[in-house]
Specification:
131 residues, alpha+beta, Maf protein, 4 helices, 33% strand
C-alpha cells in the first residue's frame, strides 16, 4: 500500500526579500530589527504525495510586529528559540509578545497550515475527522 507523504515549509519575506533562519545571535538581531514596527509576509507551503499524485497548497499571511526595544531583541536573540526559525521568531513562543496583528492563519505561521493540510487530505480521499 502506498503511504501518504506530507511535507511543509515556511518562508518569511519583507520588502520583497526572503528572510532566512539566523546563523547566530548577531544575524537574529539584524532580522528582528528589520521586522520591528513593520509588517511582513509568512508563506507556508504544504504538499501531499499519495497514490502517485502530488497536491500542493500555499498559505499567505500578513504579520505585523510592534516596535521592538533593542533590549528585547538582545534578550530574545540570546535564547535558543530563534536560531532555527524562519525570520528568527516562533509565533508560538516568546516572540508572541512582538506580534500586534495577524491577517491569516496562526497554524500556518507556526509552520503547518492545518486548513490547507486538511483540504489536501480530503482531496486525496483521506478521512481527516473520524467519529
Amino acid at each position: 500500500m502506498d503511504a501518504p507523504v506530507l511535507a511543509a515549509d515556511t518562508i518569511i519575506t519583507i520588502d520583497g526579500n526572503i528572510v532566512g533562519k539566523p546563523e547566530d545571535s548577531f544575524c537574529c538581531q539584524q532580522i528582528l530589527a528589520k521586522l520591528s514596527g513593520r509588517e511582513h509576509q509568512v508563506l507556508s507551503a504544504v504538499a501531499l504525495n499519495y497514490e502517485g499524485k502530488t497536491r500542493l497548497k500555499l498559505s499567505i499571511n500578513q504579520v505585523g510586529f510592534r516596535a521592538l526595544e533593542a533590549s528585547e531583541i538582545d534578550t530574545y536573540c540570546a535564547s535558543d528559540e530563534p536560531l532555527d526559525k524562519a525570520g528568527a521568531y516562533a509565533i508560538q513562543g516568546k516572540a508572541a509578545i512582538f506580534i500586534d496583528h495577524l491577517d491569516g492563519s496562526y497554524s500556518s505561521v507556526m509552520g503547518l497550515p492545518l486548513f490547507e493540510t486538511a483540504e489536501l487530505l480530503k482531496q486525496a480521499g483521506i478521512t481527516v475527522l473520524k467519529s
